[in-house]
Amino acid sequence: MSPIAAVMRRELRSLFVTPVAYVFLVIFLVLAGLLTFYAGDFYERGQADLQPFFEWHPWLYLILVPAVSMRMWAEESKGGTQELLLSLPLRLSEAMLGKFLAAWLFVGIALLLTFPIWITVNYLGSPDNGVILAGYLGSWLMAGSFLAIGACLSALTQSQVVAFILTAVVCVLLLLVGQPAVLDFVQDALPRRFVNAVAHFSMLRHFEAIERGVLDVRDLLYFFFSIIAWLLAGVLVLDLKRTR
Amino acid sequence: MIETEQLSRRYGSLTAVDALTIRAEPGQVLGLLGPNGAGKSTAIRMIAGFLAPTSGTARVCGHDVRRQPLQAKRALGYLPEGAPSYGEMTVREFLVFIIRMRGLKADVGYRRFDEVVGQLQLEDVLDQTIDTLSKGLRRRVGLSQAIVHNPPVLILDEPTDGLDPNQKHAVRQLIDAMARDRTILISTHLLEEVHALCNRVVIIAHGRLLADATPAELEARSRYHGAVSFSAPGSAIAQEMLGRLPQAAAIEVDPLDGRITVFPKPGERILEPVETLLRQQGLEVSEIQLERGRLDEVFRQITSGPAPSRGAEGRA
Which of A214, A204, A190, A198 is nearest to A135 (CA)? Predict the structure, then answer.
């Protein structure tokens, strides 16, 4: 078994041994359901799609993903197990990837467990299941980006609370940066080209594009590179802590 | 084999390890000694590849920890200070995780699992989570993790810390048995451990190498080396007479139990003259002891010097 797979298995196991996994699953599923049916007007819209379901995901992830990612490195660093892990024959990047993949897989499982809502919408009408699949993919990619951010910031500190807050703040900034309200606010102060460039970093924009069923390579690449970049930054942080 | 070459580590202006050059050969148990904060753990962490050296380097079985970190780590079994392990895992899961990380093949893995579980007597706690184990058991789990891949080089940071005398004895026997064809580096601040285990000792303080010798050589540096001590009634007369011995340098009387210690002049043997004198004086002596030297005294003498000024100034 490769070291990446071994780390991934261990991480997944530790998620399910501690209450983190169950708390996450229950809150995610309950909130996703409630928000879709009550706040999202799932029935009243009279449309057979899952848009009211997916549009809440960024905001759910904002609270829940940092709770999963905060322990990734902060816990190891605090408990001294980081010394054990990093003296085993594996690269920093492999350790990072193993931990990230475990968390990402876990969120994937949480997403899969929302299948009753997919059954419901198929029972009530005949939705475009391609669009729904794209929605799931977009949601999972966004969760991956949040997790990569959390992995990097968790490497910065020994405190899980600090890791949680930092991750939530960075994620909310990345979500809001492309919102019209924010862009209008800074439009006069900053050059137009800069504002447009910044708007491209908005996670919400790319997520909404995918969620509408438009699978543009650029949106996929955005999430792909964002995950890679944050994971690399995290590896860099770990390496700096070795040499600092 | 472990070699370090001018191994140094600085934290800002603090020099934790200062140009440390040591060498341990197969078959050797090298004890790394020093007061708390001397830089033992920092040095060990650099050899284990957890910390990067600021300058200099270390080699494990010839693999440079900077250029070939993975090869160096493969050759190494490492017990970090405090024996950290994943508390939510059971002993079995933890060992299986380490075996996977070490990339052992299934058959080898199973065999080694059984071997280390037997060696460290972990059979009864295999399915207990590590968090619920006593300190001594956790230490043994940490040791099992370090030796499971049968590494040619072992680095153990305070391996017997927190163990009761029986467990200490068992761990020392284990280390002794493994020492034959391996290179073992242990850090400790227990001087009894040096006697029990090490065939060479390196003493560091303020990150610098202060002594590199065998335990016997260190003992020979002691004021007590070759001294003779005994208890006798009528010690006042004895003292008077002993003081006249040409070979005696000084005499001390323990204020608590009245035990007399006679120190020899450098290069003199003093046991026989003392015995002859006592017999001549007709003093009854229940037992008489020739001292080998006291490591704790030598340790204090070597490490209690002032901090080297160049280190304190934050040498570039």
Answer: A214
For residue B204, report the phi and psi dihedrals to the nearest 5 degrees. -125, 150
Q: Which helix (H) or strand (E) holds B238?
A: helix B235-243
**pLDDT band at B315, cuts 50/70/90?**
very low
Q: How many CB atoms lie within 10 A of CB B125?
A: 20
pLDDT digits (tens, 9 = 90+) for A14-49: 999 888 899 899 999 999 888 888 877 777 777 777
Structure tokens at A209: 């594009």
Under an 8 A CB cutoff, do A242 and B85 touch?
Answer: no
- Mutant choice from A83, A240, A241 vs B, greatest count of B C-beta within 10 A: A83
Asked if B146 and B156 count as a contact pair (C-beta separation under 8 A), the reply is yes
Identify the bridge partners of residue B3 per DSSP, sorted by sequence position.
Answer: B23, B59
Nearest chain B residue (CA) to A14: B88
ipTM exceeding 0.90, yes/no: no
Q: Are A230 and A152 in contact (CB under 8 A)?
A: yes
* pLDDT one-digit tens code per residue, A137-159: 999 999 999 999 999 999 999 99
Residue A133 · residue A48 · CB < 8 Å: no
Report the alpha-carbon distance of residue B196 to residue B160 in Å, rounded.
12
Q: From CA B204, how far away is CA B46, in angstroms rounded?
A: 15
Terminal-to-terminal C-alpha distance of chain A? 32
**Number of neighbouring beta carbons within 10 Å of residue A223:** 22
Q: Where are the domains of chain A?
A: 3-237
Higher pLDDT, A200 or B182: B182
**CA distance linking residue B4 with residue A213, whole number of Å:** 60
B chain contacts of residue A81, beta-carbon cutoff 8 Å: 84-86
Distance to chain A for B306, nearest Cα, Å? 27
**What distance in Å separates the CA atoms of residue A235 and residue A96, rounded to the nearest whole number?**
7
Q: In order of start, what are the domains of chain B with their CATH numbers?
A: 2-220 (3.40.50.300), 228-291 (3.30.70.100)
The alpha-carbon gap from B13 to the nearest alpha carbon of chain A, in Å, equals 12
Mean residue pLDDT of chain B comes to 87
Amino acid of residue A67: A
Statement: residue B309 has pLDDT above 60: no
Burial A96-120 (b: 16+ CB within 10 A, else e): bbbbbbbbbebbbebbeebeebbeb
Q: How far is A14 from chain B (nearest CA, A)?
A: 7
